[in-house]
Specification:
The protein is α/β, with parallel strands linked by helices. Helix content is 46%, strand content 11%. It contains 16 helices and 13 strands. The strands form two sheets. The protein has a nine-stranded parallel β-sheet with strand order 5-4-3-2-1-10-9-7-6. Strands 8, 11, 12 and 13 form a four-stranded antiparallel β-sheet that branches. Flavin mononucleotide binds at residues 24-27, 29, 48, 50, 76, 102, 123, 144, 148-150, 175-178, 197-200, 202, 321-323, 325.
Length: 359
């Protein structure tokens, strides 16, 4: 594409990608196939390391390296996962270009990553979290506005983005509600260095999400219905409504707690966590967050329920995290088509703006 350099931003140099377009980590969705599709199309992809089994993660990293001709990509992790240390070691061992995370890593961990020349790029949903993340050592920040998919804050992208851009001096990547070239150009106009998208990449032909689940996404045409609920794990999460959410809405608090405990036990078994590890994670979560015991137990719900939709192909019984932008996406294009289409449209819009004549 001849417009390559026209949209080059400092983010492209920092991450080593052609276009300032990032595919975010999505639990059970952002596996090697999606990262390979994104990377080979000129974007920058993150492997969802928090939900890839410890026995498989190294092989997934190697597959991405092999099938992208060793182009740069990133790894997502969170400090609460039992194999967090393994992921940090792998990121350093394979000199991955970037890591992404939410809350968690301390200055020492971030220092080790930065010393290995790894870009530390957390996702935040509020200005104070952006400032804190930079204080801890982050050298790029993804800001996710409230319209974004999965766990999300309440401030919309158009309010959060300028707030953070004005307050920090590292590259800012805008997330939440992006899917086309108009969005990319608007984000750059706000002062962002690029855009990051979850839902748009989930809804591609490179995504390994089972068809039964993808069809539910495609059938959702009303953005208003892709709403936020606290019922899954006690934290605000934006999702497509389904039978499971209706059940939770009608369930008594006691029944919800019973469901949460059962799912937490399954999650513990699945991750191979020892009771000691589970207790230590539980205690850490309790110390860091003043929410109730029930909510802390419920934190295991999100990964278990996401898996039902994204791996088992059972969308009625799981969680379908989605940004409101899902309502605007009508078909499953390849990552290549999505990225080249976004770049092309951004260029067209930019030319049109440049041609506006003064009154
Ligand atoms: C299905 C799904 C799963 C997600 N899982 C995670 C996750 O495991 N970790 C994370 O940091 N963000 C997660 N997110 C949030 C995305 O990384 C991203 O920030 C968000 O999707 C951006 O908004 P958009 O959907 O409007 O593009 C998830 C989002 C979706 C849609």
């Amino acid at each position: 594409m001849s417009e390559v350099n026209a949209l080059r931003t400092p983010l492209c140099d920092l991450l080593g990608c052609r276009y300032p377009i990032v595919q975010t980590a999505m639990g059970y969705v952002a596996g090697a196939d999606l990262v390979i599709g994104t990377t080979n199309a000129g974007g920058f992809g993150f492997l969802a390391g928090a939900t890839i089994h410890a026995d498989k993660i190294e092989a997934e990293i190697l597959r991405v390296k092999r099938e992208t001709d060793d182009q740069p990509f990133g790894l997502n992790f969170h400090m609460f996962q039992p194999n967090a240390q393994q992921l940090l070691d792998l990121a350093v061992k394979y000199r991955l270009r970037a890591v992404s995370y939410g809350r968690g890593p301390d200055k020492k961990v971030i220092g080790r990553l930065r010393d290995a020349d790894i870009v530390c790029m957390p996702t935040v949903g509020a200005l104070k979290h952006a400032q804190k993340a930079i204080e801890m050592g982050a050298n790029a920040i993804t800001v996710q506005g409230g319209e974004g998919g999965g766990h999300t804050g309440s401030v919309p992208t158009t309010v959060l983005l300028p707030q953070v851009v004005d307050a920090v001096s590292v590259p800012v990547i805008a997330a939440g509600g992006f899917y086309d070239g108009r969005g990319l150009l608007a984000a750059l106009a706000f002062g962002a260095s690029g855009i990051a998208m979850g839902t748009r990449f989930l809804m591609t032909s490179d995504s390994k999400v089972p068809d039964a689940t993808l069809q539910r996404y495609l059938a959702t045409k009303d953005a208003e219905k892709i709403a936020v609920s606290h019922l899954v794990d006690g934290m605000p999460q934006r999702m497509i409504p389904n039978e499971y959410l209706s059940m939770l809405e009608k369930a008594s608090p006691m029944k919800r707690l019973r469901i949460a405990v059962n799912l937490a036990l399954k999650w513990k078994a699945e991750t191979g966590m020892t009771t000691g590890q589970a207790m230590s994670i539980f205690m850490k979560a309790m110390r860091e967050d003043s929410s109730s015991v029930a909510q802390t137990v419920m934190a295991a719900n999100a990964p278990m329920l996401l898996q039902r939709s994204m791996v088992d192909g059972n969308p009625a019984d799981g969680v379908m995290s989605a940004g409101q932008v899902a309502a605007l996406i009508g078909k499953l294009d390849s990552c290549e088509d999505v990225i080249s289409g976004i770049v092309r449209q951004a260029m067209v819009r930019r030319t049109a703006l440049n041609e506006l004549t003064p009154a």
